[in-house]
Amino acid sequence: MLKIFTAGAAVIIAVVLIISYICFRIVFYVPQKNKGKTLPLKGDTYKPYLETMKRMAEEGRKIPYEDFYIKSFDGLTLHAKYYEYKNGATTEIMFHGYRGSAERDLSGGIQRCFSLGRNALIVDQRTSCGSEGNVITFGIKEHRDCISWAEFASEHFGPDVTLILCGISMGASTVLMAAGKPLPQNVKGILADCGFSTAEAIIKKCSRDMKLPAELVYPFIKLGAKLYGGFDPDEYSALEGVKNSTLPIIFFHGESDDFVPCEMSRQLYNACSSPKQLVTVAGAGHGLSYLADGERYLQELSRFFTQNGIKTEILM
Length: 316
Known about the structure:
Elements lengths: L1 H26 L22 H12 L4 E6 L5 E7 L7 E5 L6 H4 L3 H7 L3 E6 L17 H16 L5 E6 L1 H10 L7 E7 L5 H11 L4 H16 L8 H7 L4 E6 L7 H10 L4 E6 L7 H4 L1 H14 L9
Parallel strand pairs: 3-4, 3-5, 5-6, 6-7, 7-8
Antiparallel strand pairs: 1-2, 2-4
Helix pairs in contact: 1-8, 5-6, 6-9, 7-8, 9-10
């Protein structure tokens, strides 16, 4: 009987480990062969904007830049591109989304910064393009990378250069997590576009979208992250970050976002303890608020940051 029980327990453990590993590979792992590749933008939501995004990306490739590299807290080489509008100008440090890239997710980001008289430091998140790593951690490790980039920028450009942390989708959650931690004194604000509230909330939402039992699947996903990815997705969250932030934060979110629900930015806004503003854009899908209404986007940015001590003018 004992042998049967032991054998049965071993089978159960093996099944749990196998399922957890499969979940880890699907949700968090990026094979080396896929480095630099990004999830394609599919669906009717993006069709009206694809040509504009392509044009912005092509324009961005023609703008001179400087490559920067730093070491992460866990030894990875991380890469970013620096685009200078004016020496000493306010600089945005920008972070892209899940399985994305700076070029795909931040189309127009350089031009948007230039139109506000700002420089842009556009970061390849770990696992993407010029940065090392094979595990996406939904902001758990990425927000520590964000802090490292802020420290690098403060040292490289000098403490008198105003820094703003900017992110879209998972990048937004990344900078919101960082907002709750100690940052260089010249980090003066946060721009968070369509971020998720917690890793658990967005993973369960996506599981339901795939017709999977979210409450049943999530424990396997979490176990896979801990056993094979070396992190706990519930260790920290953007929701906790905004509760501890003292920095001004402006939230943007498309009201027709079917990937990260607009309600998540409302939750983050309501939990935020620092000066804040929430801007929702009617009809805009995931990550499309700027493309859907660029004029309003710039106006709201200019107004909010000027009101919070960072003089911002729309130049073009």
